[in-house]
Amino acid sequence: MRLSFAAPTSWIALSTLLFSLNASAGIEQQLSQCAAKQDKLDRLICYDNLAAKVGNKSQASSHMAPVSKPAPTPQPKPAPQSAAVVASTPASAEASFGKVYKEEKADVEKIVMTVKSVKKNPRGILTISFDNGQVWKQNDTNRFKVKAGETVFIEKGALGSFLLGKDDTNATIRVKRID
Question: What are φ and ψ of residue 151, in 5° steps?
Fold first, then answer.
């Protein structure tokens, strides 16, 4: 009676498959243990530790089979900007402050302007015009006192909102640029 064995490559494939199935079962068990934790911070730490372990295992397995990578090609250095372009950047960024879309990012976080006029609608919502031509409208229902000639600031708030305030008070209101 003669026993025949499969080729060595099929044994390697079979052992790799069994190892990955065992690892997958272990990860699922660890995930369920993390999910069972009541404290949010402990649960997050458990998930982070598990992700680090899985990341280390995948990196270790990727190091087993080295792959030759082409040498990185040097990138050309960008041409230096002229002084005229650099000088005009803050003014254009300030002019577009409040009109910035998600794709564009302005470098300005806060601008200071002088109030030209203030209008209040019947519901008490303010529309404020500034000396530089910008017009902003109040976007909430909070009370805020502002008069023509006063200096105010508008700064970026959370989630793409803007806040209008004065340096001498702690109060701010949410505003939206309309022109």
Answer: -100, 125
Distance CA 127, CA 136 (A): 6
CA 134 – CA 113 distance, rounded (Å): 9
CA pair distance 124, 126, nearest whole angstrom: 6
Q: pLDDT value at position 135? A: 95
Helical H runs in the chain? 8-35, 40-64, 83-95
pLDDT score at 129: 96
124: left (phi over 0), alpha (psi -120 to 50) or beta: left
pLDDT digit string, tens, across residues 51-89: 888 777 655 555 554 555 555 555 555 554 444 444 445
The three state secondary structure string of 68-106 is CCCCCCCCCCCCCCCHHHHHHHHHHHHHCCCCCCCCCCC
Backbone φ and ψ for 78, nearest 5 degrees, come out as: -70, 150
To the question of pTM greater than 0.70 for the whole model, the response is no
Work out the number of other CB atoms within 10 angstroms of the CB of residue 7.
8
Asked if residue 97 lies in contact with residue 106, where contact means CB atoms within 8 angstroms, the answer is yes
Main-chain dihedrals φ then ψ at residue 176, nearest 5 degrees:
-135, 135
